[in-house]
Design brief:
CATH topology: Rossmann fold
CATH class: Alpha Beta
Number of strands: 10
Distance between the termini: 31 Å
Strand order of the largest sheet: 3-2-1-7-8-10-9
Strand content: 15-25%
Order of helices and strands: HEHEHEEEHEEHHEHEEHHH
Structural class: alpha/beta
Shape: globular
Radius of gyration: 20 Å
CATH superfamily: Vaccinia Virus protein VP39
């Protein structure tokens, strides 16, 4: 079921949300699809794999896609794997991957098995023109996310929400892990908000009924970072509205969305918070234990 239009809920215009999707390989419906369907966002996507880029052609909505490798700038080796979604500018590490069920590397049938290596040219995100804005930045590039972020610090100054895949175990040789990404983004003014799609696998030789769920070991997740909510002065007015919209419609983070709307009301003398809380009650979301009557 699609999310209600946030702009209609609060009765106030939402500045257009500029989404940058790095690693836009189509894998089902995008998490941000409701933003597009409600006319609240536009997408610039990057997908350098030629076969996957071709699959993006003709997508409906305000979307444009570029066959560009983002990274440090300069040449790099692109490891193309049996399953395209495991391809990376880092080499998969069979010493680690082969420890787990369903995600083999050494075996030619494994998702991480490298079929060929190509030399490619990478571009720094900050070297792309000032017309490219990233209010909402999504990255899924199999371990290379931090390298892209390190060369996107100028773009990050206007970003309010980041979704990035992170690994807890090094599936690729010399790749940064979750802690490295978190520390870097902390220094850029972001805090971890939540983890979604947390995944793992059983160690071999255990093969439970569902071998795609972790028995004990977590391997990766999508980490959602937001501009530091303890420093609301770091948000401009448009950033408050954009972030609240993303948090409501994409991540169901209703409490943080409400807090940002309160700050907008404080600055502008509007009543967006009250309208928003009323909408949560009407939507019968699980807040029966909370009492909003005492809120202004």
């Amino acid at each position: 079921m699609s999310s209600p239009n946030f702009q209609e809920i609060i009765g106030h215009p939402i500045p257009r949300i500029r989404i940058v999707d790095v690693g836009a390989m189509p894998e089902g419906e995008d998490r941000y699809q409701d933003l597009l369907a409600n006319g609240l966002a536009e997408v610039t996507g990057f997908e350098p794999n030629a076969e996957q880029f071709a699959r993006l052609a003709g997508r409906a909505g305000p979307c444009r896609y570029l066959p560009v490798f983002l990274g440090r700038g300069g040449p790099a080796n692109f490891n193309l794997t049996r399953y395209p979604g495991c391809s990376s500018l880092f080499a998969p590490d069979p010493r680690v991957i082969d420890l787990f069920e369903t995600i083999g590397c050494s075996d030619a049938g494994g998702n991480f098995h490298v079929e060929r290596v190509e030399t490619v040219e990478t571009t720094r995100l900050d070297d792309l023109g000032p017309e490219l804005h990233a209010d909402f930045l999504k990255l899924d590039v199999q371990g290379f996310e931090l390298d892209i972020l390190r060369h996107a610090t100028a773009k990050l100054k206007e970003t309010v929400v980041i979704e990035t895949e992170v690994e807890f175990i090094p599936l690729y040789k010399e790749q940064p892990l979750f802690g490295d990404v978190q520390c870097f983004l902390r220094d850029q003014g972001f805090v971890l908000h939540k983890l979604v799609d947390v995944a793992g696998r059983p160690f071999r030789p255990f093969r439970p009924r569902n071998p795609y769920l972790p028995m004990s070991q977590l391997l990766w997740a999508d980490a959602i970072f937001v501009r530091d909510f303890t420093r609301l002065d770091a948000y401009d007015d448009d950033g408050l509205l954009r972030a609240a919209t993303i948090l409501d419609m994409v991540y169901a983070s209703y409490d943080l969305a409400a807090m940002l709307l309160q700050e907008y009301d404080r600055r502008q003398g509007t009543q967006l918070f009250r309208r928003y809380i009323d909408s949560l009650v009407r939507r019968e979301l699980p807040f029966q234990c909370l009492n909003f009557k005492d809120h202004p």
